[in-house]
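Data availability (excerpt). The following record was deposited with the supplementary files.
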Amino acid sequence: MFDIRTYDARTGGNIAYKAFSHPLAAERLAALVRVFHDKGPVAIYDPAGHAATLLALLPQEMRIEGIYVHDSEKVGQPTACGLTRALADLPQAPVRAVWALDFEHERVCTRLRDILPVGVEIFTLADARLPDGMLTVAGTYLSRLNFATNHAFFRDEGGLSTRLVTTNYWARYGAGEVRLWLRLFGQDGHPLASWVEGPFAPEQSIIVESAQVRRRFGLGAFTGQLFIHVLGVAGHDVVKYALEIHGDDTSNTLSVTHDANAWPAERYANLPAPRQGEQVILWVQNSHAVPVPANAMALGRMGHDTRVPIDRPLGPYETVGVCVNEYLPHAAWPEQLEFHGGYHVVRPRYEIRASSGTRIAHLNVERSDLGHDPGIASLPSRFFGRGYLLPFPVPDPARYRTTLQPAPMSHALETMPVRIDCFDEEGRPSGSRFLGCLTRGFEMAQDLSDITGRAGHGELVYDFRDGGHADGWLHALIRYEDLMTGHVAETSFGAHIFNTVMTYRNEPQSYSGPPPGLTTRLFLQAGAGHAPSFCHLIYPVSGAWHDRSSTVLVLHDETGRKIGERQVSIPARGSLTLWPHLIFGQDAIDRTGAGGYVMIRDQSCRLFGYHGRLRADGVFSLDHMFGF
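Predicted structure:
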């Protein structure tokens, strides 16, 4: 497993990891290691505990004499280079160079200069810093705002094209000149292009089209990844986007997926086994400038210990399509699979190829820091009602089959005691079913037409009538199939506590501010030139809250300018399907340009939404929305 520290739910992200793994920093680190080759063994001074992550991310190996620390309580701790040593012993080290792992050159040189023998050269991480013009917070290099970065699956090949869409939401937090620094890697991992987009006006839509990139740089067809660094941000460093994949006129491909999780993880779940006649392709994309050895990643069946190693190496930033059918030839829907990524990749995508067309969706991070939380089973109902719930759309059962598959989403989870509650669009109960206390390796997918015959939405909730444990990270894969055309789309997400005045372990969450913020700000594409967009907006309530939402829809053109505003109201536990071209009129949508969008705002409750597009021939996309 890759020995790096990325993200922890308690302490947040390791910004040093982002600083070391940035493609520009990786190039500079490689150049520095080449200098060290002529210096002989190098002593490392590690004042902030960066050594393990940095050494794992170095593009080339180097000879290390020892790792030195100034914290006396950390002397003697094991590392990949032996036990840590006391800084006081550094003057006796038989080296010609010391590498101090600090980005402030003069500060660390002042500390070391007088204790080192004459002739010992001091190097620092200043040689791996990004250019000053790329820093948002110039005085604090490891500020999280300096590394608002992410990755995106990006393809323009075989009649398929990719469209990344977001907006300059950082202006809302006081950002000034927001720009994008972008690098496109081809399938072999080599850079195809690096460029800057922007600056972007406040609330302006941001679009990166694969076809436009291809024309701009004279590129051939590609399937690779796009590294995104947003410069000049404020408020937070999270880079959120929607990723649409379109097919040409002869293709049934139309998919939308959520942004990647910017932090590599050990495992990922929500990977479905293939149905008869389907081929499942897992797109594995090395997120780093160091190779991934053969057999360092693996596939496995959920609930089984046996893993099948991916028996080929990946070069730096390389993209490989792994055929799940070949590695797990006996796996079949409704089995669930795990991808053991070993911290080498950010949240990957999978592609399902079938006679009905091609669709693409994302896996989710399987948490390693969660265990059984006994408090969930005893949450006071007068405070939290039904507690954690995962809302999802249920379109008209006469036209669409909705299938739900609960998914274990933490390493330690062995049981899932769950129930599905259904509600019609007015919030009236329309069916319920206890699925049981499911084991980790269960094989089941519930057809919602067996529970409800009405359009609206469902909610997956905990139900402890037969015992079982919960971890608060309840997830599910939801699959939608058009019974007339056979077209399929799918999405996956996790549960929260929604709209309660009391809080439990940071729930209910809001899209901004501390819990219980209970507000909504959702981004919905509405631009002209593509299939009409829609949103299935749900008002989930765990306990008791306002009888109806007070939801405002604001239409913006691609420059961020407000075009129109409408109000809608959704009953508690109800839902509403929004079509921007019907609410605002097609003429208004046409005036917004290709990047027009609707901002869905509610200051009285937290809503949850799913967005997509619907072509005239019935081909559609669907995934959960992102909020700011």
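Summary of structural features: The CA atoms of residues 307 and 593 lie 49 Å apart.
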